[in-house]
Specification:
The complex is a heterodimer of chains A (139) and B (235). Chain A is α+β, with helices and mostly antiparallel strands and 139 residues long. Helices cover 32% and strands 31% of the residues of chain A. Chain A is elongated. Chain B has one domain. In chain B, helix 3 packs across helix 6. The chains are: A alpha+beta (139), B mainly alpha (235). Chains A and B meet through helix 1, strand 6 and helix 4 of A and helix 3 and helix 6 of B.
């Protein structure tokens, strides 16, 4: 039905698409370490050696863990499996709150202790008006 | 089939369409903006900065949609040698690029008060930036190459390279840890956005789609006029 050239062009595009997809997949797979924006506390525990360079840790701010002593903020990041203690002094975003997502950038002191140089609040995918939130909490 | 569509016949339709599309756009965008900026509730956590979402999300959707459309048109156009598809792609690209930039800028404005940073090199944001670069390459290619055959080939290759990035943008928030939140609107599972916010979001999406259509028609008409004036070039 279609000419030989049309078939060849179709096959050509098909080959390009398959080859490129595979290449990109392999590249991303091997770069996974760098593609992730932050590590979870559990992943930190499984590190074979101490990271000296700047890293990011993300998870939930553990409830009732925030305390401020001498302008130094300390709190616990949890992924509900492992926990890590974070100390930080500096600006905190408005949405930083207990029980909410957080990403801390800084240096690992030891397995359980992290010194942050920057704190980012992570927003979740829930969007609702305050009344609905209040109604949900009442349930 | 496509040979039957003479430039003159297409032009008789597309030259009249813009004014109706413009009217419809003004109507939908005024409803959308009223809903988004005045009538819709504030968010329980972000309060009023949630309103940025009504521009950010539709802009991102439209830019992804236009890039996908351009890719399909370019590939089919390349395989079956349909010139018209390349002209449609060329006319679609500018509004896709503009919406891509709008998505990046509004995301940045939202990110500062919410996350505490203007920019993060996370997978979603970086892949969206890469899409903007592909749009830019696509638009520049049309200006560089004079020869029709050459420009069709080059732009097809750019779209094929760029389209691989599109599923990466979509699933980046699921595959990797990102600062950007995962999708709130899911077709298969329950959406995590309240209906009072979903409605203005969808109206704004319709408004942006109409705006893209308007810009597309204006660009496309220009292309058709160029062909008519030359008299030699057929679709």
């Amino acid at each position: 039905m279609y000419g030989r050239k049309v078939k060849l062009r179709f096959f050509f595009i098909f080959l390009i698409a398959v080859t490129l997809s595979l290449t990109i997949f392999l590249i991303l797979k091997s770069l996974e370490e760098n593609v992730v924006y932050f590590k979870s506390p559990s992943e930190i525990k499984t590190l074979s050696e101490m990271q000296q360079k700047k890293i990011r840790i993300g998870g939930m701010v553990k409830t009732d863990s925030i305390s401020i002593v001498n302008k130094e903020l300390s709190f616990v990041i949890t992924d509900f499996k492992s926990e890590i203690n974070v100390v930080y002094s500096g600006l905190i975003p408005n949405l930083f709150e207990e029980g909410k997502g957080v990403v801390a950038e800084g240096f690992l002191k030891d397995e359980n202790f992290f010194s942050a140089t920057k704190i980012l609040a992570k927003h979740d995918e829930n969007y609702m008006p305050p009344e609905v939130k209040a109604a949900l909490e009442e349930k | 089939m496509f040979q039957l569509l003479e430039p003159n016949r297409i032009f008789s339709i597309t030259s009249k369409a813009p004014k109706y599309v413009l009217l419809l756009f003004i109507l939908v965008v005024s409803i959308g903006l009223t809903e988004a900026l005045i009538l819709s509730p504030e968010d329980y956590k972000q309060s009023h900065s949630v309103r940025i979402m009504y521009v950010h999300v539709p802009a991102a959707w439209i830019s992804l949609g236009i890039f996908s459309t351009i890719t399909i048109l370019s590939i089919v156009g390349y395989i079956f040698k349909i010139k018209n598809f390349f002209l449609i792609s060329k006319s679609l690209a500018p509004s896709g690029f503009v919406f891509n930039v709008i998505a990046l800028v509004t995301g940045s404005i939202w990110g500062k008060p919410t996350w505490g940073t203007w920019w993060a090199w996370d997978a979603r944001i970086t892949s969206m930036l890469i899409l903007a670069l592909f749009y830019l390459m696509y638009l520049i290619a049309w200006r560089i190459y004079e020869d029709k055959e050459q420009v069709f080939k080059v732009t097809s290759i750019i779209t094929i390279l760029g389209i691989i990035n599109v599923p990466i943008i979509k699933y980046s928030v699921d595959w990797w840890n990102t600062l950007h939140q995962p999708a709130s609107i899911n077709i298969l599972s329950k959406s995590t956005i309240h209906s009072s916010m979903l409605v203005p979001l969808l109206i704004m999406t319709a408004a942006f789609a109409l705006f893209s259509l308007l810009i597309f028609l204006m660009k496309y008409n220009t292309e058709l006029i160029k062909i008519k004036n030359k008299g030699l070039d057929r679709l």
